[in-house]
């Protein structure tokens, strides 16, 4: 028995547990790289923005008062609210443009345009394709105002999760000017807008 203990003693002394407690450190797992999450583009919420458009204006007088065209730039502000329903987005908006577009051969100028309406579109994630329509009003320098409707199409794209850039083409039929019986005012606008979303 004593011989067995003496023979096993060198093995016990060489054991890490009895040789000062020296134990190899466990291996550290390799770091795991986690890719940042892709931005989530949600169209739901309020937005405000600015817009600039090219306008082609036409005044048609049915009783010989005015038959004139004009074109030029208008710029203004916009605000609205959208609701993202998945693949469909619905919303309401207000747009106000100002400018001085003279009608050829007259002293009349188109001074401003107000639009209040809605839009419905296809949600393509970062992009939105939509149709828009509603009430439109225009004021002129010397022939009063006119009230009618607008209809158009647009495209909007997120630049960041809070900022979007859009383009619109809108047909405006303002109806008869109240200062010139029988004269209808129309305009087609094509422009760009930038929006901040809350």
Helix and strand arrangement:
Elements: H1 2-14, E1 45-61, E2 67-84, E3 88-102, E4 109-124, E5 127-140, E6 145-158, E7 163-176, E8 183-197
Antiparallel strand pairs: 1-2, 1-8, 2-3, 3-4, 4-5, 5-6, 6-7, 7-8
Detailed description of the structure:
The chain has about 200 residues and is mainly β. The chain has one domain (about 45-195): Porin, CATH 2.40.160. The protein has one helix at about 1-15; strands at about 45-60, 65-85, 90-100, 110-125, 125-140, 145-160, 165-175, 185-195.
Tell me roughly what share of residues is in helical segments.
under 10%
What's the rounded overall pLDDT mean? 87
SS field, number of helical segments: 1
As a whole number of angstroms, the C-alpha radius of gyration is 35 Å
Q: CATH topology, which one? A: Porin
How are the strands of the largest sheet arranged? 1-2-3-4-5-6-7-8
What is the CATH class designation? Mainly Beta
């Amino acid at each position: 028995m004593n011989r067995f203990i003496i023979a096993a003693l060198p093995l016990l002394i060489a054991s890490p547990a009895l040789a000062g407690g020296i134990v190899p450190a466990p291996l550290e797992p390799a770091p795991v790289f986690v890719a940042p999450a892709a931005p989530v583009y949600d169209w739901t919420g309020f937005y405000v923005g600015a817009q600039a458009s090219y306008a082609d204006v036409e005044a048609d007088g049915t009783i010989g008062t005015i038959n004139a065209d004009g074109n030029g730039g208008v710029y203004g502000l916009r605000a609205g609210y959208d609701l993202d329903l998945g693949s469909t987005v619905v919303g309401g908006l207000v747009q106000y443009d100002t400018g001085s577009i003279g009608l050829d051969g007259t002293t009349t100028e188109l001074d401003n345009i107000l639009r209040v309406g809605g839009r419905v579109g296809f949600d393509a994630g970062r992009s939105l394709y939509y149709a828009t329509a509603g009430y439109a009003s225009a004021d002129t320098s010397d022939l009063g105002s006119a009230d009618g409707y607008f209809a158009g199409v647009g495209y909007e794209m997120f630049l960041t999760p809070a900022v979007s850039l859009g383009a619109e083409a809108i047909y405006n039929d303002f109806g008869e000017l109240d200062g010139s019986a029988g004269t209808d005012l129309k305009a087609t606008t094509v422009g760009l807008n930038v929006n901040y979303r809350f």
